[in-house]
Amino acid sequence: MNVLQVFLTGLSLSAIYALLAVGFVVIYKGTKVVNLAQGAVMMIGVYVVFKLNTGLDFWIVALIGIAVGAAAAVIIQLILSLSKSHDHLVATIITIAIDMIVTAILLVEMRDLMLYIPGPWADAVIQIGGAAMPVARVAAFATAILAIGAFFVVFRYTTFGVRMRAAASDPETAALMGVSGRSVALWSWGIGGGLAVIAGIFLAGFPGAGLPAFGSALAFAVIPAIIIGGMDSAEGAIIGALIVGFTESVSRYLVAAYAPWMGEQIAIVVPYVIMLIVLLVRPSGLFGSREISRV
């Protein structure tokens, strides 16, 4: 594996992580809840795509799966709104329970089945400067740029984006100005759920072998990215995803070349080491907002 191969692998992996990470951050900015059922939302959408992807046009099926994932996320938010507690920690714990319930249902439904979605690019590979690159990963990179770019355009240059930013920065004042916190919350969860399904579609295809019933755990791989970047920063989530993606790719290469006795799985641990260091030095993350307490 040459340096360019490591770079391209890290870049493509970062793109998928960025989709998931921005989904986490959008929900957190809108409601201050860390949605640990984000993986379950991803699996619901991917499962729908897998079931319908048997003759129908892939893009139509993908859009249906994304819409179902967005709807699933909105339903979770509605469930959270039923709680008598307004503690965000309680809401986060509820999302863990939802994730476990969805995973258990998928285990019964899928058993040993793997959700493999080849997509229109199947297992095609192209050569870039001597490095072999799956077309699926090129598509993932392009899709991530389009999806995240569209989100930033909406977030920064539309009235809806202004309402989201206002509700995220000062909910009470925004409410007095007529901004509906409930509407912002529902849209935040819907957007976050849709981004998770887009990432899941690429995780379920080549060069991977598909997603198992407990594939929701893969979403937790981006936790270091959002912690490193900052929980309330979409830009930070992207930078964090780049750090995690490249760290994994480089670590995998170095372990395979110089320390194969450690096993490739050690590459998964390295981003958590970086996350630990960032938490010790800058608990709010590289781009997160610092909380100031007056005493």
From TrEMBL:
Q: Does the keyword Transmembrane apply?
A: yes
Keyword NADP found: no
Can you cite a GO biological process for this protein? amino acid transport
Q: Which GO terms describe its cellular component?
A: plasma membrane
Its name, as the record gives it, is Branched-chain amino acid transport system permease protein
Q: Which organism is it from?
A: Microbacterium thalassium
Q: Where are the transmembrane segments?
A: 6-26, 33-52, 58-82, 89-108, 128-155, 184-205, 211-230, 237-255, 261-281
| Keywords attached to this entry | Amino-acid transport, Cell membrane, Membrane, Transmembrane, Transmembrane helix, Transport
